[in-house]
Amino acid sequence: MAFQTLRGRWVSFLGTVVALVLGVAQVAAMGLLLTAVRDLPDRPAERFADAPAVVMPYDPNWNPAHHDLGVRSLPQAKGVSQDLLRKVSGTGGTVVDRAFHAQLEGGPKDQVGHPWPVAGFGGYALRDGRAPASDREIVVPSDQARTGDKVTVLTAAGVGTYTVSGTVSPVGWENAVFFTDPEAARLAPRINALVALGPIEEVRKAVRTAAGKDAEVLTGHNRHKADASEARDREALDNTITLVPVMASVAGTTAVFVVASTFAFAVIQRRREIALLRTVGATPRQVRRMIRNEALLVSGSASAVGTVLGLLGAQLLADMLIGLDISPPWFRIEPSLHWTVLAPLAAAFLTGVLVALCGVTVAARRAGRIRPVEALREAAVDDSGMTPGRLLLGVTGLVGAAGLTAWIALGNPALVLSPSAYALALLVPVLTAAVLAPLAVGPFTRLLMRPLRHVSGPIAMLVRESVRTSRRRTAATAAPILLTVGLTFSLLSATAALGTARDNGLRNQVSSDYALAPDGTPGISPQVVEKVSRIEGVQVAAPILTTIYIQDEGRLEVNDGLVVDGDAALKRMMNLKVVEGSLDAMDDNSTVVPDVWGKHAGSKLKALMADGTETSLRIAATYHAVRGEDAAYLPQRFAGTAAYARDGLARRAYISLDSGTDPATATTAIRKAVAGTGARFITKGQLAASESAHTRHLTEVRQRSITVIVVTFCFIAILNTLLMSTTDRRRDVAVLRMTGATPTQVIRFFIAESLLVTAIGVTLAAIATALNLTALWAALHDLFGTPPSRVPHTVIATITATTAISTLLALIGTVLPVIKALRARTVQLAGIRD
């Protein structure tokens, strides 16, 4: 019987099959991505491929996945000590390696400088010319310059002119500039690593004696840990690990809801069949078994197809993430019989089957409980659609949505800064509205039809009464539209509002009217800042990023520090919201810290700097900040530690003009001074946009990827549900035709009803979104002070397009079955049960 009913009602299950196939495919593909990320192949060594052993500073408790790219552990920041250098050199010789910012003018942003003696260990060989013999000579890749050229090189120590003494063939894993050993030591005092030339066991013994657990000896494929690409790959894979579960959880939740509700609706539509089965003697158990067998047949075949599709499409998903700069270019997913492939596929298949079974369980149990005497009466009357279980779930969701809104707005506004958690929070009000939709059908129908109460003709009255007396059917067809518009509106509005609020917060925090920003470089050289500060009437403050390490209850906390030139520069350029203390109290022995650190003005802050020196600073003031933007401001005497912590460059420089200074003259002089230095002169508004560009890119990729997947499922659900609903109403078409309605009037009736159902779904979506945006606006006001006053035009256009497509799909799903039904004779329509 299960086979026969599927054969007779295949149209009703078509959308469910498509939704299941796509749902299982995305679960399989994302599962393959996650297992591939956690079981990566060994990457080959690059810079030290020909080195016998590499000695590097090491912290066994350091997990780079918990820190931003470029942040170093304390041993890595300090670099190789002189004691370790002497002991390793005594085993048979060493070659010192340094890595620092060195970029040819107009060259790649990630270009790096090294001493020439380490070049040979990475497979570099002179293509022409010779090795650098003086401190004003360099060797570069042949695609960057030619031997004998005079080139400009940008470094943290300033802008210098060098002669190209030779060139090497380019490699795919770095863009390097090679200096003499003394010149490299001048530009970068920190030693990154040592190439140990002595016997391995003697080297290991020397390292244990000199550094203990603060250094390690790398051999074999472990030498890849010394490559810069290892950190970049890890950052990219961490982004993948962050993004994929969020996509999977949000899209998976939507898929479960769509598939389960579609199965349940299909069962509800078959009450007439079930009533007949109960009347002729079918037991409740037999009814439930038949429906479960249908679900097993549909879900088994759809899940199998989805599993194959997910296997084939996993690399396509990986390629999409690579194209969005989320995953590294070498990331590949290879089909095999390994557990990392079979486990996600099996899990995806079982998920599809379980989702289908869960979707029919409640409806099948309810249908099986109908007594034979009541079966036909139950089949002929459409109830409210609100079962006790659904009402309980809806009330629970409503309480949860209200509580979640209050918690975000008042108790934990920082949650909106976490895309992973906040994307799931946005689902709660939208799904709750979908669950409670049957209760809203009556009131919303009266509200939306009120403007049409004086319209002549029977269509408006028929539409209103048809929708009000079929609340279950109306709620089932409005739910996919509600999900589509609500989730699209919530996700895209939240993304746009958060990005705009960050921009506004930065604008409010910066007092200066102008700034310098990197121009194709990772930062601005302090020498360039000094050059600009010598212009008459121009004041410059360029915080240099460093790292401070704070011991807290046995743990070493790593925090950002910004070195500034005294409190005057800080007050002149930055509009910090001081919570305790005063910026006037800042001097060479004090600091200003964010309030999220839990410190108080007047107390002492004991810390280790990146070069290993210990310091104790008085906290002059605390200021309001959010996580991710909570750096301490340090006095100028710590500027030298930046070369150990990061690259010694300023990420931005703030510029103000003295009273009476001619802006046109000053800005012209500034532009001339920074030309060719890797810095560009911009306004405060342009600075805010450039500062948030990277963060906004990652956030927008997450939210838009989720939105695309969610909307795809919902579009399928809209079309499928309307097709199912309208196909089942051929008897209604017959009644209208027998009472004298023309085919045009019948089509107009169904179109009007479809538009009303769409309007109900959009209205519910707007209410759910309003709840989400209320919490978001309150949180952004608390975090940044000025939430955005309007939604960007691109978001409005996207939401409008989504709503229009949803309406169009609803009309297609309504009109096509009606046109097909009108082709049949009226008597045939009246006698058709299925």
Automatic annotation (TrEMBL):
<feature type="transmembrane region" description="Helical">
    <location>
        <begin position="795"/>
        <end position="819"/>
    </location>
</feature>
<keyword id="KW-1133">Transmembrane helix</keyword>
<dbReference type="Pfam" id="PF02687">
    <property type="entry name" value="FtsX"/>
</dbReference>
<feature type="transmembrane region" description="Helical">
    <location>
        <begin position="337"/>
        <end position="364"/>
    </location>
</feature>
<feature type="domain" description="ABC3 transporter permease C-terminal">
    <location>
        <begin position="247"/>
        <end position="370"/>
    </location>
</feature>
<keyword id="KW-0812">Transmembrane</keyword>
<feature type="domain" description="ABC3 transporter permease C-terminal">
    <location>
        <begin position="706"/>
        <end position="823"/>
    </location>
</feature>
<keyword id="KW-0472">Membrane</keyword>
<feature type="transmembrane region" description="Helical">
    <location>
        <begin position="243"/>
        <end position="268"/>
    </location>
</feature>
<feature type="transmembrane region" description="Helical">
    <location>
        <begin position="706"/>
        <end position="725"/>
    </location>
</feature>
<feature type="transmembrane region" description="Helical">
    <location>
        <begin position="746"/>
        <end position="775"/>
    </location>
</feature>
<feature type="transmembrane region" description="Helical">
    <location>
        <begin position="422"/>
        <end position="444"/>
    </location>
</feature>
<comment type="similarity">
    <text>Belongs to the ABC-4 integral membrane protein family.</text>
</comment>
<dbReference type="InterPro" id="IPR050250">
    <property type="entry name" value="Macrolide_Exporter_MacB"/>
</dbReference>
<dbReference type="InterPro" id="IPR003838">
    <property type="entry name" value="ABC3_permease_C"/>
</dbReference>
<feature type="transmembrane region" description="Helical">
    <location>
        <begin position="295"/>
        <end position="317"/>
    </location>
</feature>
<protein>
    <submittedName>
        <fullName>ABC transporter permease</fullName>
    </submittedName>
</protein>
<keyword id="KW-1003">Cell membrane</keyword>
<feature type="transmembrane region" description="Helical">
    <location>
        <begin position="478"/>
        <end position="499"/>
    </location>
</feature>
<feature type="transmembrane region" description="Helical">
    <location>
        <begin position="391"/>
        <end position="410"/>
    </location>
</feature>
